[in-house]
Amino acid sequence: MAIIRYKPLTRSRRFTTRLDKIEITKHTPEKSLTITKKKKGGRNHHGRITIRHRGGGSKQQIRIVDFKRIRTDVAKVIAIEYDPNRSANLALIQYEDEVRAYIIHPEGLNVGDNVQSSDDAPINVGNVRPLLHMPEGTVIHNIELNPGQGGLIVRSAGAEASLTAKEGKLAQVKFPSGEVRLININCRATIGKVGNSDHEKVRLGFAGATRHRGRRPKVRGTAMNAVDHPHGGGRGKSKGGNLPSTPWGKKCKGVKTRKKNKVSDSMIVRRRK
Predict the structure, then answer these.
(1) Residue 113 and residue 95: Cα distance in Å, rounded?
(2) CA distance 68 to 118
(3) pLDDT single digits (tens) 91-140
(4) Cα-only R_g, the chain
(5) Are 2 and 17 in contact (CB under 8 A)?
(6) Residues 77, 111: Cα–Cα separation, whole Å
(7) Which domains does the chain show, CATH number per domain?
(8) Which of 25, 80, 111, 269 has the maximum number of C-beta atoms within 10 A of its C-beta?
(9) Tell me: the pLDDT tens digits for 12-46?
């Protein structure tokens, strides 16, 4: 999709960009495949804020996406839709018995194309195969980490991974981050690259666009008093000699959060950094 730019009638409009959404063919979601999304405002079941700067935003409905693709019969793409809950678009497919489902829309999949999920499915965009039955070098997305679990990774707009090697019961997959990881060769993945790759080029441009997405304003720690934040107080843009931290003194920004001696560490061939 192309990027739309506006005439600079205001200061915010000068830098605002949007997607033209020319790929979208259906503007109302499939009613049977949606559920209501309840707003929580970052609060837990006790009513206490556990995630800050959340609240408000436009009303949304959750689309029920088929990440497992269990059915082996051929389905036809009947529409491409926008999903407010993810950066990628969705493709609405319909099987021969008129059962419909949502899948992540890969780049190059058009209305009228057929998709299939089986061991002998053609090596075409949108088809699902086990890694065992894919040639090396295949571009894939929506990858399982355990057989039958459903796709968990490489699902955002423009993301793609590649199958680099197969040896025994394991396959090497290179992720968009640069990490190379071993995955069970019986895990399945969808062929192709996730569409809507221009999503990262969009500039919201004004504060209201952020509020529409349910994000409330943030106050910098350096703008607070010393009693309110470790970065507060002082004169000028000083952090008071403290490392980047939360209001409660917990270190952040670059601090490693992955557990040491995690079981899956043995499956990582090369780290992303």
Answers:
(1) 12
(2) 12
(3) 999 999 999 999 999 999 999 999 999 999 999 999 999 999 999 999 99
(4) 22
(5) no
(6) 5
(7) 3-200 (2.40.50.140)
(8) 80
(9) 899 999 999 899 999 999 999 999 999 999 999 99
What type of residue is 95?
A: Y
